[in-house]
């Protein structure tokens, strides 16, 4: 049973994937909202990884797809397990123990907005991949979509540009 203080905490959802941008966003969030508070964190932390469906990942459903789908599914499960493990290790390193981690199948945009609703989150944190205008227009920006559709504050964490 969660303590009374734990039950009253606001929820922070952090979107995680297998990118350096995601890792940076999680680390930044832990450093600014969790590490300074020892064990009395101001938020309940929920990490959400959106796992693509096999058919979406390969973008086909024609002849031959049936043989490939199980292989793609196995690969997506391995990636998800890696993402979750890395995130848990990072939280553990920063002494953040009470973390809820979810892997949800679907498009990241919808998965993250639905997680906000499900957990009644007051803030959603996403990393910025730093795509240019053309790539963002083609791929669609998860952070942009969430900023417009999530029913909470959305914090987009950008990695600083590396100066050479």
UniProtKB/TrEMBL annotation:
InterPro entries: Rossmann-like_a/b/a_fold (IPR014729), Universal_stress_UspA (IPR006015), UspA (IPR006016). Pfam families: Usp (PF00582). Residues 12-158 form the UspA domain. It comes from the Eukaryota. PANTHER family: ADENINE NUCLEOTIDE ALPHA HYDROLASES-LIKE SUPERFAMILY PROTEIN (PTHR46553). This is UspA domain-containing protein.
